[in-house]
Structure prediction request, 369 residues.
Amino acid sequence: MAAFDDTLRIRLGELISQHGRGLLQEPRRMEGLLRDTSQGRGGSDLHLLMQGLKAGIPVQLLDDLGRGLPVAGILQRLIQRLEEAHISPQAARWCVESWSTALGIPVPIVVDRPAKVPLDSEFPIYFRDPPAQTVWNDPVTGMAFCWIPDGTFLMGDLFDEGNSDEQPLHEVTLDAFWMGSTAVTQGQWQRVMGNNPSCFRLSADHPVEQVSWEDVQQFIIKLNEMGSNRFRLPTEAEWEYACRSGGKPERFSGGDDPNAVAWYAQNSDESTHPVGQKAPNGLGLYDMSGNVWEWCEDWFDDMAYAKAGLRSKNPLQQNSASGDHVLRGGSWSDQERFLRAAFRDWGRADYRGYDYGFRLVRIEQESGE
Prediction:
């Protein structure tokens, strides 16, 4: 690791101890105090610590710790957040560990991502190498599928703006999977089922809609019989993880600007639109916010997150007294708040809404790609 000024860690801890954690809300004052105590040394390292403060590293660290999440997992996610802001891995780690030390939180041994060893003893994560090709096309329908790498993320309302069923935040670990880059289109449905149930029959590239959860299961059965590959609906956890570009803190799928990534009430002209016209998210997935609601495999339970506990791996809600199934993503007819990556909706298994569609997950075969 590159040489960093670890005396700044000591100074940082002393300042927080002296002035209290309220100093975290005053970045300019903290920077001035650090400059005064460091006597002009460690300028670039001081700047790095301030970048971490402005990125919310210490506040998020305390919040996640208060929810009982494991320190190693918290630190790894925060390091990744800084790396995504184009900070080198060594600098990102030093910054996050400096804030942890200054806040009196012991830093455990954190395993680098490439190592094929578990990060957690209860829910071990074995990171897999990506396939040689990270986009795969189904030879029967032409559907494109993107590789979604395995990982751990905080599922739920990250921005304190949602409904009670989006809480509490909880840590979810997922194995890697393949997800459709777009919702299933009318042309793809027609190729498998021989009909088109859609309300907006405008082109083969528009998403199929007016399909119920039960209709989708029949589509999957028939598609699975047409070739050697197997498909299913995504779980709700897979859907949110993929929507947020691999669990990143994104309000919508791909960022904070709904107009850039979604067709919704403010820009849709009261209709669906061909898939893939808006900007993709960080994993190459289109329209996970807006255009059509997307069915998930899970039954809907408004207490699912409370029942899940603080951590789970590959969760699937398999039954519910409600009799409903999960819908995600919002649609062409919805206001902005329904497009949020964390927003949860539901529908009867037999209900066909003119804004209800779906995308698929490809099930990996033992000898598959």
